[in-house]
Amino acid sequence: MSRSVRVVWDDALISYDFGPGHPLAPVRVELTMALARELGVLDAVETAGCAPATDDELALVHRRDYIEAVRRVSATGRPDRAAGLGTEDNPAFAGVHEASALIAGATLAAARAVWTGEAEHAANVAGGLHHAMANTASGFCVYNDPAVAIAWMLEQGATRIAYVDVDVHHGDGVQALFYDDPRVLTISLHESPRTLFPGTGFPEEVGAEGTAANVALPAGCGDSGWLRAFHAVVPPLLREFAPEVLVTQHGCDSHALDPLANLMLSLDGQRTAYAALHELAHETAGGRWIATGGGGYELVQVVPRAWTHLLAEVAGRPLDPATATPQEWRRFVRERTGQTPPLTMTDGRKPEFQDFAGGYDPADPIDRAILATRKAVFPFHGLDPLP
Questions:
Q1: CA-to-CA distance for 323 and 230, rounded, in angstroms?
Q2: DSSP string of 80-111?
Q3: Of 17, 148, 178, 355, which one has the fewest beta carbons inside 10 Å?
Q4: What span, in angstroms and rounded, lies between the C-alpha atoms of 264 and 257?
Q5: What is the pTM for the complete model shown?
Q6: 250 is catalytic
Q7: Number of CB atoms found within 10 A of residue 107's CB
Q8: What's the CA gap between 355 and 231, in Å, rounded?
Q9: Domains assigned to the chain
């Protein structure tokens, strides 16, 4: 389905590094790109470099005094807790501005390629830093690259952009930055804020004219429940909103092995979601699709395989789940991490779900979450919240 695809990459993107022991280890992106390269995924796309986002570009969503604060931390390595840098989640480090601006620049490069028609789809797996706020770092995120890209497209004249976030954590930064802007529809599927950071993302958070939709799923939700929720909420809203561009964030920390969260998806369930978003990009946004990475803290077993599947889907050449991981990549994993690499590109699951249109069970916590979101948001769009 993909006519032209651009993957934005620069080896310097792994300089976004909060230090040893921090969960957001840049090796996860390094292993992803190595696996995609070894499996020939990158042969099917145009790989392009990027430049750091300028201060003017960052200021599309971030306050100037915050950018200056990040620059000071970057020059000295000294914390600035008012800016959110120097905490356990967001340690201060020398070069933080340059590393963060480069990630924002990579997602901007993807957005430019899609907006100008140079590419139909574009991806930056190093991006997806969705927690950063206008004036503070948060949740491992310094500059909010998806929001910068969305704001840039609005500056170019876009009137309807949809953002779908499948990270296990609520996409709070992107939601907050566009909460009162009816031109941007944000949809986030995440673990309930009652059990997970950042404590936001309740269905009652609906934004301007119902342009924020939040599906707060119970801990323990697996493939079938997650996919049921996705299909009950995302396709109807995208079809009604009819965005000019679809922007997606693909944190893979919803996986059962992720150490920081409590959902139970498999790699196969995640891959199924990528395919659904690809189809929706063509159906609702004329094929214009910008995909980013996001969270994901099982660095060897999950992230590289999940995002290699994502890149293959973006390229329009999805991988057979039974594909073996290449021997050279396995050697590289052992060399870089000392861990045992996965042998195939699957968890051996075949995700299935029952469509919500067939009726709902009021005793089921997943169905209650779905219905809460639909009741809160669907009427704004002229949609019936009941199945």
A1: 27
A2: BGGGTBSSSSS---TTHHHHHHHHHHHHHHHH
A3: 355
A4: 8
A5: 0.98
A6: no
A7: 34
A8: 7
A9: 5-50+105-381 (3.40.800.20)
Choice among 62, 131, 170, 309 that is catalytic: 131
Pair of tokens at residue 378: 């669907």
Q: How far apart are CA 193 and CA 3, in angstroms?
A: 39
* Paired sense of beta strands 46-48 and 161-165, if any: unpaired
What residues contact 68, with CB distance under 8 A and at least 6 apart? none
- Dmax (CA) of the chain: 59
- Going from the C-alpha of 304 to that of each of 23, 75, 339, 344, the distances in angstroms are 15, 32, 13, 12
Of 111, 197, 102, the residue nearest 150 (C-alpha): 111
Which residues, in sequence order, are CB contacts of 1 under 8 Å at separation 6+? 278, 279, 282, 287, 316
3-class secondary structure per residue, 247-287? EEECCCCCECCCCCCCCEECHHHHHHHHHHHHHHHHHHCCC
| Whole-angstrom distance, CA of residue 90 vs CA of residue 43 | 35
Kindly state the tokens that stand for 155: 């500056």
- Per-residue pLDDT of the chain in tens (387 residues, 90 and over written 9): 457 999 999 999 999 999 999 999 999 999 999 999 999 999 999 999 999 999 999 999 999 999 999 999 999 999 999 999 999 999 999 999 999 999 999 999 999 999 999 999 999 999 999 999 999 999 999 999 999 999 999 999 999 999 999 999 999 999 999 999 999 999 999 999 999 999 999 999 999 899 999 999 999 999 999 999 999 999 999 999 999 999 999 999 999 999 999 999 999 999 999 999 999 999 999 999 999 999 999 999 999 999 999 999 999 999 999 999 999 999 999 999 999 999 999 999 999 999 999 999 999 999 999 999 999 999 999 999 999
CA distance 117 to 386: 38
Radius of gyration of the chain (CA): 19
Q: Which residues, at least 6 apart from 268, have a Cβ–Cβ distance to it below 8 Å?
A: 223, 321, 346, 347, 348, 349, 350, 351
Dihedral Cα 359, 361, 367, 370, nearest 10 deg: 40
Helix or strand or coil: residue 191? strand
Three-state DSSP class for residue 185: strand
